[in-house]
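The material for today's practical consists of a large collection of protein records. An example says more than a description, so a record of this kind follows:
***
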Amino acid sequence: FSLIVHDIRNPLSGVVAYLDLIQNDLSRGDTSEVEEMTTQALKAAGQVGRLLEGVLEIQRLEEADLPLELRPVDLTKLLDETRAALAGVASSRGIHIDLQVEEGIVGNLDAALLRRAVENLLSNAIRVTAQGGRTELRAHRSGSLLVVEVADRGPGLSGLQKQRALRKYGRGDGTRGFGLGLHLVKLVAEAHQGELSLRDREGGGLTASLSLESGAD
């Protein structure tokens, strides 16, 4: 509970701060920056909403009370949309997201849950990658499984840190604080009869591998 409060406190403080500024400007009759501050307040409020929605999804997945909405999903399209959603964050740090998807991968998957899971993995990878670096978003088929991988060139994790990171509210190292995010990814994998694994990359960094039973030949 304290970790959830900690995660929510910063964006919520941002909402309050921007609303205070808007109120002060309006009281002085100055509206020159109100539109921009309103936009920022809405972004911060949206972040709070997404955090709370994630907590609810985790609870329902843990209780097996969140039915999967399975339908044919074009993995190339889904991953390209996910990359686009984080392109602004990546470009602000000069980080390139390299997308490599095996052609023609379609599976019966819950698109919304999978997109949230991949966004969590990619967001972690961007956060630990040095400015001007590169992250990789890959997907391929392995038998009946679809495998989505996110690879970074961050500091990596020891064996014990990998175990801790996969736990609920787990912590990686000083630069990787996974909290609920990685736990959600693990639950999404398990809901698709798959798994989440973390492994070292040759040359440094970490690869997070999300396997999913595709339900399609």
Notes: The two ends are 42 Å apart (CA to CA). Strands lie at 70-74, 96-101, 106-110, 134-142, 145-151, 195-200, 206-213. Confidence is low (pLDDT under 50) at residues 172-178.
